[in-house]
Amino acid sequence: MGKLGIFVDRQTLSSSVQLISLIKFRDEAENMGHQAYFIFPTEIKKISGLDGLFIRSRTDSMNISYVAARIAELNGVPVIDDPTSIRICSDKVNMYLHLMKKDVPMPKTIFIKKGEVTLENLEEIFKMFNPPMILKEPSTSFSARVERVYTKEEFIKVSRRFIKLSDWVVVQEYIDSKFDWRIGVLDGELLYACKYIIPNETFKIQASVNGHLVYCDVVSVPKEEVPQDIIDLGIRAGNAIGNGLYGVDIKENNGSLYVIEVNDNPSLDGGEDISYPDIYEKIIGCIMNRGKNTQNINLSTK
User: Fold this and answer.
1) Which of 38, 96, 157, 292 has its CA 20 to 30 A from that of 121?
2) 124-177 per-position pLDDT tens digit
3) What is the value of pTM for the model shown?
4) What's the CATH code of the domain at 24?
5) Do both 189 and 164 map to the same domain?
6) How many Å from the N-terminal Cα to the C-terminal Cα in the chain?
């Protein structure tokens, strides 16, 4: 038994559903015999005294959540998500390069940088990709700064807007589908599976349409109803990043599978756990057992 911290940031709590999920996680940790604490950014110094840390705040390398993960790592406190996973997944270029290195099937993808958005280069790009194509700003999350373009004029307009925020733009083949598989992976094993049903008004799981936010429906799918090749690909994609907690988005199209991206710190409050009531228990067990293993290694080397 030990002390488990749940790192949260009030500024990124956007709904009562998220708060309920956090309370469920804390309650489950206490039911397992651990002391569980919410750790806020002003209490970040407390991390060094914990036996495990679970980050439930928006993660990228420019956020306080990354600082929390690094403090945990430097003090030997097991943490999900770990700093390496945050660095990789918060930069789409880095994330896709990791998938490419492991030959994970994904849409045709290239990266263009500042100065390369020219009419001459667009001629080659439009020969390589059949419109429409997807443009992504590398630090995007929750489908923000992800656009579908059909023409060279749209391409130039969107890419120049993205380049104001990043040195690179991700250009991807558009894969049509009515839903995305979301495969939750923890420590190289299946944690949960669900479908994100894409709203009719958009091609993304979340978008602003006529000034209103529209969200995907979440359909939890029991393990026995998930095709094995979907599970295997989700685990393979997660392993290409590390051994943490990941949400892998997969599309099916004409009999082929494509990993759209790998998300660290995936959502667990949208109904993903309906068919997997042991999600929280497994995450807590993974974090706290890593702490025990570290202690055993330290003792054996003395």
Assistant:
1) 96
2) 999 999 899 999 999 877 667 899 999 999 999 999 999 988 889 999 999 999
3) 0.91
4) 3.40.50.20
5) no
6) 23
C-alpha of 205 from chain center: 13
Please give the Cα distance from 259 to 165 (Å, whole number). 25
Phi, psi of 120 (to 5 degrees): -65, -45
Can you give the CATH number for the domain in which 270 is found?
3.30.470.20
pLDDT at 208 over 70: no
Mean pLDDT computed over 269-285: 93
Count the alpha carbons within 13 Å of 72 in the hemisphere toward its beta carbon: 31
Q: How far is Cα 154 from Cα 182, in angstroms, rounded to an integer?
A: 30
Q: Which tens digits make up the pLDDT trace of 106-118?
A: 999 999 998 888 8
Establish if 8 belongs to a structural domain.
yes
In a domain, 103, yes or no: no
Domain holding 205, by residue range, is 176-280
| Size (the chain), residues | 302
Q: How far apart are CA 50 and CA 48, in angstroms?
A: 6
Q: Which two tokens stand for residue 87?
A: 């660095």
